[in-house]
Specification:
The chain is mainly alpha-helical. It has helices at 11-16, 54-78, 82-114. The chain crosses the membrane at residues 56-76, 82-101.
């Protein structure tokens, strides 16, 4: 199949939906963070896409931007004990990390496909 057959799809939209970056129909992941070997709809080879630590770095920045000011505000306003900070912020950080990790990895794979950063030529 040629590239002309597949319309250009938004890498943000397909990545956040965890769908194939070429057809937008097939599932991108076979596990929680394991990228499929190929798309089950269009057959796109997905083995060459490696996001590395990119999604985790973005999540660190996002959470640092959101959680640190909130934790400081809670500390200055209510002055709770340290154990309460741990009880509040640890589940928040873990929950948001697990919520964002898969979609951000999907966006990174879709951006790699869009900009042809793998060695695969179609």
């Amino acid at each position: 199949m040629t590239l002309d057959y597949y319309p250009p799809l938004s890498p943000i939209r397909t990545g956040l939906a965890c769908k194939c970056p070429r057809c937008g129909g097939g599932k991108l992941f076979s596990g929680f963070l394991v990228v499929r070997e190929s798309c089950d709809v269009c057959g796109l080879d997905l083995r060459g896409h490696d996001t590395g630590d990119g999604p985790a770095v973005f999540i660190i920045f996002i959470l640092g931007f959101l959680v640190v000011p909130l934790a400081l505000w809670v500390e200055l306003t209510y002055q709770p004990p340290l154990w309460l900070h741990a009880v509040m912020w640890f589940p928040t950080v873990i929950g948001v990390t697990l919520l964002l990790l898969r979609p951000l990895k999907g966006v990174m794979v879709a951006l790699q496909y869009r900009h042809r950063s793998t060695t695969e030529q179609e």
